[in-house]
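[job 0417] fold request received: Exodeoxyribonuclease III
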Amino acid sequence: MRIATYNINGVKARLPRLLEWLDETRPKVACLQEVKSQDAGFPAEEFEKIGYKAIWHGQKSFNGVAILADGVEPVETQRGLPGDPEDEQARYLEADVNGVRIACIYLPNGNPLPGPKFDYKIAWMKRLRARMQELSALEIPCAIVGDYNVIPEDDDVWASKAMESDALMQPESRDAYARLLADGWTDAVRTLNPRGGVWTYWDYQAGAWQRDHGFRIDHLLLTPELADRMTAVGVDREYRGREKASDHTPVWVEISTP
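[job 0417] inference complete; emitting structure tokens
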């Protein structure tokens, strides 16, 4: 069972690339971020044509998350991150697929800082930790995947000096991410690539893709019940280099049948 995450940066703008990736790699579950589509405009019928069922949590022009499952209907368990009833941003969606609880997240970027956007990011991460603790307590196979907008370590970026003033690398951001791992969650990509040097994002500016100036912000965190079944992880790097690609590329983990 392959679980993948992909910040698509506009589901309509990148639809040909997205369908191409789904058809060529066939992940069992694909979690999408930055869908940038209202619920009514989400192109679910296009995914159904190639065998994927979908649930989504949309928002006009910004944010938005979706969970696609190959041949099965995702059973929604949570829409929106608990903890702040006034938060209307579409950044969290959770569902059960084939006996695995999967949450798709688009964590706030936090720039510019200091300021309200960074404060919102850190508050959101605290709420995320609370939800993840609730899920941990269930002792079920669970994956929290998506664009975390956190560069966890210096070897997760092409040049740490270049990003040191960015919200993605602030001590508060890194500490909040480290606390998730300290709670018992496994960073799938880091576990099988302990030396770092794996990128999932390359900016559109300054020839970042051509110069391989990337960093890792798309993560798959697993409960012990699921981490024990992890057999492989990968980054579908080539898709970043295709025409009209997202600035992120797909990341996935392979899970064995229990």
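[job 0417] notes: Residues 98 and 130 are 25 Å apart (CA to CA). The chain has one domain: 2-255.
[job 0417] exit 0
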